[in-house]
């Protein structure tokens, strides 16, 4: 232990998420700060933290936020739709809340974690199984056609 | 004192770190980086009961430093373990 004051260290993404996935796989929930704008307005870059738990293989619902690997990259995005493959396994289509286009696909084996809650810098927690989160999520999905406009407004008032 | 068994050292980006566990599981926003001597002490003391005297002896035999310096470092190390809530 160095006697230094707390400082921020930046760890390469792949190294960081390898560690996150290792903890999740061992059954320990993990909390980390969100980086990037793709989940705005629900999660703000370098402000909000997310708490995830291990994905246990259950059927996931539209609106749930998952951590998964897509084309070799770790992504934390929301499920927009779920369909069944001919082999009977689900295929989830995901998109970032702050994105207006661009979708990803996740099979159960690509998923390592499911979001439990969001924690603001002030420590306020918003659980993903709460009614308010579900309503807000569902509303955000439905407003996709006007999302570009909403994002433009929200980026000004909610930083 | 004893290092809590829920913590383990892992290597991340070339650094040896301990990730703090709280009510939200492993908090990746709070990690403690161990330098070489701290890592040595961690590996030596982890898993058993130890006192500041044990730490002092370990430091003296490993680094060949005098007793006064070792004693001061040992106490500082133990205090930091306590401050970081790493003790069982």
Describe this structure in words.
The complex is a heterodimer of chains A (159) and B (88). Chain A is α+β, with helices and mostly antiparallel strands and 159 residues long. Chain A has a single domain, classed as Umud Fragment, subunit A, CATH 2.10.109. Chain A has three helices and eight strands, in the order αββββββββαα. In chain A, strands 1, 2, 3, 4, 5, 6, 7 and 8 form an eight-stranded antiparallel sheet that branches. The N and C termini of chain A lie far apart (35 Å). The model of chain A has no long low-confidence stretch (mean pLDDT 92). Chain B is α+β, with helices and mostly antiparallel strands and 88 residues long. Chain B has one domain. Helix content of chain B is 44%, strand content 25%. Chain B has a three-stranded antiparallel sheet with strand order 1-2-3. Chains A and B meet through helix 1, strand 1 and strand 2 of A and strand 2, strand 3 and helix 3 of B. Strand 1 of chain A pairs parallel with strand 3 of chain B.
């Amino acid at each position: 232990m160095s006697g230094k004051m707390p400082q921020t260290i930046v760890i390469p993404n792949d190294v960081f998420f390898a560690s996150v996935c290792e903890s999740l796989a061992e059954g320990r929930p993990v909390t980390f700060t969100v980086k990037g704008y793709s989940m705005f307005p629900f999660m703000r870059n370098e402000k909000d933290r997310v708490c995830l738990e291990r994905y246990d293989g259950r059927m996931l619902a539209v609106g749930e936020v998952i951590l998964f690997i897509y084309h070799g990259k770790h992504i934390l995005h929301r499920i927009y739709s779920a369909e069944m493959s001919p082999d009977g396994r689900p295929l989830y289509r995901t998109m970032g809340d702050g994105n207006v286009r661009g979708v990803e696909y996740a099979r159960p084996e690509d998923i390592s974690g499911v979001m439990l809650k969001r924690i603001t810098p002030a420590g306020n927690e918003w659980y993903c199984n709460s009614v308010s989160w579900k309503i807000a999520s569902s509303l955000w999905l439905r407003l996709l056609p006007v999302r570009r406009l909403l994002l433009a407004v929200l980026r000004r008032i909610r930083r | 004192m004893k290092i809590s068994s829920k913590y383990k050292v892992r290597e991340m980006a070339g650094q040896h770190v301990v990730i703090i566990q709280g009510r939200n599981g492993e908090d990746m926003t709070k990690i403690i980086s161990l330098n070489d001597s701290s890592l040595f002490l961690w590996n030596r003391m982890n898993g058993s009961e130890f006192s500041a005297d044990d730490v002092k002896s370990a430091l003296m035999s490993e680094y060949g430093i005098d007793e006064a310096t070792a004693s001061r470092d040992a106490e500082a190390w133990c205090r930091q373990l306590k401050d970081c809530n790493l003790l069982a």
